[in-house]
Amino acid sequence: MNNARFFCGPNDTPPLEALGWNRDLASAFTRYSGRYIPGRVACRQRTHYEVFIEGGTLNAGISGALRRAGHIPVVGDFVALHSRPEAGVSTIVDILPRKTTFTRGVPGKDGVDQVIAANIDTVFIVTAAGRDLNARRLERYLALVHASGAHPVIIINKADLADTPDLLAETISPVTAGVPVITLSALTRAGLSLLEAYLLPGITVALIGSSGVGKSTLINALLEQTVQDTNPVRESDGRGRHKTTVRQLFILQNGALVIDNPGLREVGIGTAGSGISETFVDIGRLAEGCRFSDCRHEQEPGCAVREAVMQGDLTQERLDNYLRLTKEQTFEVEKTEIGLVRYERKRWKAISILARNLSKGKSRF
Ligand code: GDP
Ligand code: ZN
Predict the structure, then answer these.
(1) How would CATH label the architecture of 16-95?
(2) How close is the Cα of 260 to the center of ligand 2, in Å?
């Protein structure tokens, strides 16, 4: 059965709502109505974008103005398109406001975090029974997802390989803090139906997780057809590398939108503030009892967080990981700030040259 209504190519004709279109987007779009048409970026290819529109798919480039402003559309973006069927290629002229953003945590040329995917509602953090089921890695992914603004759901895949699958969720319960955990097997399809609660019409779900945990297998199971190469060595060969750079948005038969975004797994912790505190709510609560309000929970006297470790209420490993992620984030924020200063300097230089040329009566700039 073909369960994929779309796979990066001309296919079906969904109404705009099926792409996740809503009232906020409609009102942001009113300034363009009549001139441009709305769409959603499904694939970012090397030379062009594939954009879902009401009634099909378009190939599009981006306008010079967007490019010069450094506003680069990413998969999941809602955009305004100048549709030019006669020219064979359309142009993305603007990006509508993003509800959530995943950033690379590495500043781009302009010193601003690079966005790699947008408008994701729910993120499936995929892990697998066995060695990958690692609390520290989950904490990192949780911080990333919280920072993006999306809702995390933890999936423990490969339940078929565990002797006692029912106990898997328990092994990570100290880090999940209210985040839903679903144990399943993408291979045998056991537990797959538990995802239905999250795969809802117009809702955009992305999958992240380490290589080999079964993300492609899971997407295939959801699509019930093979659209992803599940070859586990694909990252190390040259041919496969190209594949990992192509982001894709799929629409499932039940109307949910799925973004397979392998790029998300290499991302740094990012500079978007609240992710770590949302992941370590327990540490935040404990920190209220520290003697110093700016306590870093390292050497300070009267530290309630270290006291909790001593009492056995918090594991040393969780605290260590919290400190490590916080340091990493501080470092990235500093890096971004340095980048911004450079960017501002360059911009002012360009503006002053422009002003000089104008005052000399030169029309070219
Ligand atoms: P990805 O790198 O996260 O996309 O992982 P893949 O989907 O390529 O899967 C990696 C390997 O794990 C493949 O050999 C899959 O067949 C296998 N795999 C995926 N899901 C399951 C599962 O639920 N159970 C078992 N036993 N193997 C699985
Ligand atoms: Zn403290």
Answers:
(1) Beta Barrel (2.40)
(2) 39
